[in-house]
Amino acid sequence: MKKLTALASALAIALIISLPGNACTNVLITKNASVDGSTMVSYAADSHDLYGELYYWPAATYETGSLLKVYEWDTGKYLGEIAQAKQTYTVIGNMNEHQVTIAETTFGGRSELHNPDGLIDYGSLIYIALQRSKSAREAIQIMTSLVEEYGYYSSGESFSIADKDEVWIMELIGKGQGYKGANWVAIQIPDGYVSAHANQSRITTFDYQKENRFDDPTANVFNSKDVIDFAKEKGYFDGKKKDFSFADAYAPLDFGAVRFCEARVWSAFNIMNPAEMGEYVEYAQGNSTNRMPLFIKPNRKISHRDVMNIMRDHYEDTPLDMTKDAGAGPYNIPYRFRPLTWEVDDATYFNERAIATQQTGFSFVAQMRNWLPSHIGGILWFGVDDAASTVYMPMYAGIVDVPYCLAQGNGDLLNFTWDSSFWVFTFVSNQAYGRYSYMIEDIKKVQKELEDNLTTYTVAIDQSAKALYDQNPELARQFLTDFCCNQAEIVTERWRQLGEFLMVKYNDGNLHEEENGEFKRNEHGNPAHAKFPGYSEEYYRNVVKDAGNKLKMRELPKDE
Question: CA–CA separation, 481 vs 203, rounded Å?
Fold first, then answer.
């Protein structure tokens, strides 16, 4: 038993060393698995070094021979130049004006397959493809063609690629220095099913294709031609093609991959179909190698609000619940600040890694709807900072500008400004981490109020924008832009007020009572006497166990 524990700890450490700064979560919903027939993809960009802002590239045309400078998304490192497309499309965050959405999670995989000479990193691959594609299939073709021509710079990556009709997972890893191209597989999620990935390769066996038929609407698997032969050449696989597993060959599973990554997928699946996920509890806890399926059928239709709540998950009400152990402290905080692993008495331990985490730069729920013009049908519900305490604001695919409070260049990770949504939301969430069980209830109240309103508004905005679009598409796009910009500023201001309210209510560890948003005063007009809520009985018992003899009230000794 000791040997197994030591091995598990070593594997966990190895995974942490190999994982990049971004450790993200995606949830994927197909049309017939959703409440309204929309496809959906969620994404949390979880990096301690990422500033939450809404990226924007307007559509443009370029002369033949134009070049595009490529910079690594994570670091800003200049990688080189590639040929620019003659026509690019408007991109709002991770969705373009044709309702194509691309998200990612990094799985790393075999380190020797990193190509330091590649010109395309995973972030550039996403945003270049969004500027050039009108469908998910076209995006897959463009992404794989780019790495084939210019080389892939990053480590192993899982991509969610969706449009208004289809949802795909593509997993891709380089071939090492001296090789262009990449090893990759793309699988369409069957309609009526849901999927997820979280920093671990999840595609195992698949129907290998000798030729990719991107123009065939019935094709549901694409892959690089030598994805299996390359693995055999490197000694990663020795068997028949039908038994080849992409994940086992290029990103072998270990304890850390399960506990920090696959457990998040399990939790997302568990929310959407708990009966089916019961048999995988042991797997999520790292006690089994019985892998979960790539996709499951949910036990109900999933709404965009359901997906938002999945992105706010901390394993609540499961065996991995982060609010239930000593690390949660007296206020049941579902967060464990880094490092992710730590040592006591020569033994290595780890903290849970939930879907919602404090280091999120931005997250979104992308909703693509095929019954509306794409400029109106696509909504990127966009939030900044911790998903559990953010507000998802609607950004339509057709907007021609982004809100100033979310815009690039409005502050950064080292420059605080009240004009930035990221910093306003960070101000609130960082307060909550100190008194979580109390403050999160105040936060959820305002969060629900705002998201209820925004969901209701978009129903009316859809109808108004469609009527206007039929008469004048450009005027409709400006109408959508004004709506999105105004609402983002309103939400940000309301959140700033919430932060001020929390500061007063919980000042100095006290509790100032309020009613309908107004703090109580005594009969003379002065602030009512503060309450002292103290701590839970369980916390006090732990204090007594540790220092009871020192802290116990007693009589003074009598003089002798």
Answer: 39
**Nearest by Cα to 404 from 382, 424, 419:** 419
Cα–Cα distance measured from residue 103 to residue 41, given in angstroms and rounded to the nearest whole number:
8
| Secondary structure of residue 423 in the 3-state scheme | helix
List the one residue out of 483, 477, 470 whose CA is nearest residue 59: 477
pTM (two decimals): 0.93
The DSSP annotation for 454-465 comes to HHHHHHHHHHHH
Q: Is the peptide bond before 339 cis (omega within 30 degrees of 0)?
A: yes
User: Contacts from 375-379 at CB under 8 Å and sequence distance 24+?
Assistant: 375/97, 375/469, 375/473, 375/476, 375/477, 375/480, 376/462, 376/465, 376/466, 376/469, 376/476, 376/480, 377/99, 377/164, 378/95, 378/97, 378/99, 378/101, 378/164, 379/304, 379/458
Q: Work out whether the CA dihedral 438, 442, 447, 453 comes out positive or negative.
A: positive
- pLDDT score recorded for residue 338: 87
State how far the alpha carbon of 190 is from the alpha carbons of 31, 168, 558, 560, in Å: 9, 9, 81, 86
Residues sharing a CB contact under 8 Å with residue 554, sequence separation 6 or more, in sequence order:
none
* Nearest in space to 160 (alpha carbons), one of 326, 302, 44, 35: 44
State how far Cα 365 lies from the chain centre: 9
The amino acid at 80 = G
Contact 201, 236 (CB under 8 A): no
3-class DSSP state for residue 45? strand
Q: Could you give the CA distance from residue 345 to residue 347 in angstroms, rounded to a whole number? A: 6
Rounded-to-integer distance, Cα 141 and Cα 135, Å: 10
Domain limits of the chain?
A: 2-350
Q: What amino acid is encoded at 113 in this protein? A: L
Tokens linked to 412: 């950064």
pLDDT digits (tens, 9 = 90+) for 337-396: 988 998 999 999 999 999 999 999 999 999 999 999 999 999 999 999 999 999 999 999
Q: Which residue has the tokens 């006497």?
A: 529
**3-class secondary structure, 375:** helix
